[in-house]
């Protein structure tokens, strides 16, 4: 399902709120905003299908990228890397990069890792990133189109 940019932003905001609170109601609201008729099955799986499988996409802006200190975390996964842009800002704290999503901010050049094996890796990646980061969905611009993708946002 292709969503116009404004609707995609609204769906992602609702989905991120639901993930943060653990509330399934917000995921159902996100599904309705996307135009879904049914919330059959697990809400996260349905949302993944509605948004064209963002569970298979990870935006990388720091140490997980090829050539960076923690590239080994993703090195064993089959997939491809593409350049992309997301809106927000990157700061450095304690020697680490922290991304903060802001749909009104300037573009940040990043890499998008796409792999069919990512869905099975999220628990491990979440544990690796630790409590200083939370995984959210953002619109990523690449090759003239916008896709929903996961990114690790720094917690304040």
Provide the descriptors you would attach to this structure in a database record.
single chain, 156 residues, alpha+beta, Hypothetical upf0131 protein ytfp, 2 domains, six-stranded mixed beta sheet, 5 helices, 6 strands, 33% strand, globular
Notes on the protein architecture:
This protein is of the alpha+beta class. 28% of the residues are buried. The protein is globular. The chain contains five helices and six strands; from the N terminus they run αααβαβββαββ. The model has no long low-confidence stretch (mean pLDDT 82). Helix 2 packs parallel to helix 3. The chain has a six-stranded mixed sheet with strand order 3-2-4-1-6-5. Pfam families: GGACT. InterPro entries: AIG2-like_dom (IPR009288), GGCT-like (IPR013024), GGCT-like_sf (IPR036568). This is Gamma-glutamylcyclotransferase AIG2-like domain-containing protein.
Write a brief structural summary.
The chain is of the alpha+beta class. The protein has helices at 5-21, 24-34, 43-50, 72-75, 122-129, and strands spanning 57-60, 80-93, 96-101, 107-114, 133-142, 145-154. It contains 5 helices and 6 strands.
CATH class of the largest domain: Alpha Beta
Mean pLDDT: 82
Secondary-structure element pattern, one letter each: HHHEHEEEHEE
Overall 3D geometry? globular
Q: Tell me the total number of β-strands.
A: 6
C-alpha end-to-end distance: 34 Å
Rounded radius of gyration (Å) = 15 Å
Largest sheet: 6 strands, mixed
Question: At CATH's second level, what is the architecture of the largest domain?
Answer: Roll
């Amino acid at each position: 399902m292709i969503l116009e940019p404004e609707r995609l932003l609204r769906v992602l905001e609702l989905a991120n709120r639901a993930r943060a609170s653990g509330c399934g109601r917000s995921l159902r609201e996100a599904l309705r905003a996307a135009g879904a008729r049914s919330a059959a099955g697990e809400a996260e799986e349905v949302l993944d299908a509605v948004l064209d499988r963002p569970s298979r996409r990870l935006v990388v802006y720091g140490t997980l990228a090829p050539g960076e200190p923690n590239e080994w975390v993703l090195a064993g996964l089959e997939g491809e890397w593409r350049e992309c842009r997301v809106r927000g800002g990157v700061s450095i704290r304690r020697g680490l990069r922290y991304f903060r999503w802001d749909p009104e901010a300037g573009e940040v050049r990043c890499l998008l890792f796409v792999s069919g094996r990512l869905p099975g890796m999220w628990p491990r990646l979440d544990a690796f990133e630790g409590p200083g980061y939370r995984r959210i969905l953002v619109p990523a611009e690449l090759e003239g189109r916008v896709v929903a993708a996961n990114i690790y946002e720094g917690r304040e």
